[in-house]
Amino acid sequence: MGLPTLAVFKLASCDGCQLTLLDCEDELLGLAGQVEIAHFLEASSAVRPGPYDLTLVEGSVTTPADAERIHAIRAASRHLVTIGACATAGGIQALRNFADVDEFTRTVYARPDYIDTLATSTPASAHVDVDFELRGCPIDRRQLLEVITAYLAGPLGPVTHAGCGAICPAYGRGCFGPSGSVNLPALIPVLHRDGMDDRDTERFLHTFNTAAFEEELRR
Length: 219
Prior knowledge:
alpha/beta, 5-stranded parallel beta sheet, 10 helices, 13% strand
């Protein structure tokens, strides 16, 4: 069995979040032995076709080509994680959402008829299902490494409130959400998929923060 494959794709963005990954330096040397970097044009022109086990997407959807491409990326990815403000919220490009984009192109470009763009800048989640969103402009390198490490240790976990350093996933243990604030709409279907019935799911969620989880279930 080969190493899990990692792909990194860019849509409309400044590349800052991809540079955060490259800035990991020493940590990347460790990751290099645990994953096969199959697509990461910021780092290498060598490209392997999908499917990919873990895909990171930077940037927002701003052109018709982007809108088609994010669907192709989703179809080729077992797990899709968006990184940064552009990919998770549309970024500064979303200023166009509140103005006349045709006026912008006429003002900026000598030949606006060559510009093929959408009237809006939208996050990837507006077009496809996303497994995890890592916010920030740029993203925090420690949080990025936590996400990749959690994936390598197994499932991404119940998407709990951050701050623990993801100690349990780093050592191959499941995450029981001791910090609370679990994304239940994302978590419960995954638990059912992995074989937990309603009773086991309730017991799992009551491990540490019973009151907090009960409150979220009532929302």
